[in-house]
Amino acid sequence: MSESDLQSELSFKSSSSILNIIKRFSATEKVIFGVLVILAGITAIVMAVRASDIFKVEVPAYGGTLKEGLIGLPRTINPILSITDVDRDIGALVYSGLMKYDGDNLVPDLALSYSISPDGLTYDFKLRPDARFQDGTAVTADDIEFTITKIQDLVLKSPHRADWVNVAVNKISSTEIQFILKQPYSPFLSNTTIDSFSANITSNLSVLDLTR
Fold it and tell me: How far apart are CA 188 and CA 10, in angstroms?
C-alpha cells in the first residue's frame, strides 16, 4: 500500500470514528454539539473579518466630485492679500507655494528640492520642472520673485509682509530662487508656503487692480 493510500485510509477511519462517536450522543448532547459547532463557525468568521480589516488597505476610487462648504464670503483670492480663513482656503485650491503642509509636516510643493546653509541664513530652492499654472505656462523663479517683492511692497500693505521683512530675494536661474535672511529664523521655511501667482499675467496690473 502506497503512502497516499495509507493517508486516505487513515483519514477515512478518522472521519468514520468521529461520526460513530456523534451517533452515540444522546439527543441533548447532539444539540449541545451542534450549538458548539455553530459558535465555532461564527467565531471563525468574525476572526477572519477582523483580520481582513487589519490588513486591508483602502484605495480611493478614481474620479467623482468633492464639494466643500465654507462659512463666510471671500474678500479676495489674491494670495498676497488674503487674511481670512475663507480667502486662504480658496487660495489653496487655486495657487501653490514652494512648500506646503502635509498634516504637521512641511513638504515641497512647487519646489523640487531645497537646501539651508549651515548658518541658517540662506535658503536655496529648485523648482519642479513640471510645475505649471492652470493655463499651462511653466512656473519659474520670476513668478516666485515677483510674488515676494509684491508682498514686501509697502503700498500694497500685504498682511504677510512681516514674514518677509529684511529677506533678500535672488533669482539664480529660471528654476532656482534664493532667500537670504539677516539673522537665523528657524520657522522661516513655513513662510515659503505662501501661494505664488504668475508674473506674466499680473506684472502689468496697477496697485488698485492687485488690491481688488
Answer: 76
- In this structure, is residue 107 part of a structural domain? yes
- Cα separation, 147 vs 82, in Å, equals 13
Statement to judge: residues 117 and 47 lie in one domain: no
| Model confidence pLDDT, tens digit, residues 175-202 | 999 999 999 999 999 999 988 877 765 5
The residue written with cell numbers 529664523 in the block is: 185
Q: Cell match 512648500: residue?
A: 99
Cα–Cα distance measured from residue 98 to residue 188, given in angstroms and rounded to the nearest whole number: 12
User: Can you tell me which residue has the cell 471563525?
Assistant: 44
What is the domain extent for residue 38? Answer: 3-55
* pLDDT tens by residue, 19-45: 666 666 677 877 777 788 788 888 888
Residue 199: all three cell numbers together:
508674473
